[in-house]
Amino acid sequence: MPSITGEVIPFYEVDVTNESKVNAIFSQHTIEGVIHFAGYKAVGESVEKPLMYYANNLMSTIAVMNACLKHNVKKFVFSSSATVYGDNAVPFKETMTLLPTTNPYGETKAMCERILTDTAKANPQLEVTLLRYFNPIGAHKSGLIGERPNGIPNNLMPYITQVASGEREYLQVFGNDYDTPDGTGVRDYIHVVDLAEGHVAAMKHSKPGAHAYNLGTGKGTSVLELVQTFERVNNIKVPYKIVDRRPGDLAECYADAKKAYEQLNWKTKYDVVQMCEDAWRYETAKQSVLISE
Ligand code: UD1
Description:
- By secondary structure, the protein is an alpha/beta fold.
- The protein contains ten helices and eleven strands.
- It has a four-stranded parallel sheet with strand order 1-2-3-8, sandwiched between helices. A three-stranded mixed sheet has the order 9-6-11. A two-stranded parallel ribbon has the order 4-7.
- Helix 2 (19-28) packs parallel to helix 4 (50-70) and helix 6 (156-164) packs across helix 10.
- The structure holds uridine-diphosphate-N-acetylglucosamine.
- Uridine-diphosphate-N-acetylglucosamine is lined by residues 41, 43, 81, 83, 102-103, 106, 135, 154-156, 159, 171-174, 185, 187, 223, 246, 248-249, 253.
């Protein structure tokens, strides 16, 4: 968005599983590095349509990497996920053995990491960075860009903002009998702007081989803590009901964030207070756009 970046960046709308179309773009520009974000990301949908998830997420990664090899692009940054750790003990550390994920979406991330690691081994000039995102929430401070899920949100923050705006009646809190301080699930929420800056740092400090980094704050926040923080900082009520656990959910998931700090010189700047403020600012801006349309 030029009003945020101050630059007009060329944009092509293509299916990145289509290698010849990807190659055509690479032929038109001198590319120093690639950040590969594209992929399906809905956990529930991946359980219903595994082939669609494996085909899309794996083939897009292979096609983009093939184009990099063909056009001699060395730097490749991949959007991975904390889900690759499976049910390890918290905090999750990059040196841990990855455990099975609970759904096809997660499996595609683990498989892509493997594909890219093998490709880096076979092509020593490559600099592959695997960024394991924890739970990105919030929005850009301008209120111009943020999260607008299709249909009923699966993730916690967009659900909270839609309950706060009156679009949905109440939030369902999935279980309060976990072995956590208040019984609800604990996650490492990271502001999307911090996450974005993690990619800039990854590009700057990339090195030969394949290297994984956690992008998280290192701090866990429970569902109820996030709801209460949202209510307090935005001065608005978020009605909720405790319901059964959601299948496949972990009790706790948070990062050991040291490696990214030491090797990428990156750490988060924002806390959950700012994440809640920015998510709500975007939601209210979005509501006014919808009303005026
Ligand atoms: C999920 C995926 C993760 C993916 C992320 C972003 C798994 C196990 N998790 O993370 O890989 O990167 O989405 O797409 O594969 N909650 C409620 N009520 C709701 C929604 C959520 O109580 O309506 C709770 C959940 O039980 C959880 C927390 O809020 O404790 C966060 O949930 P969510 O935002 O869906 O993210 P994850 O499940 O952590």
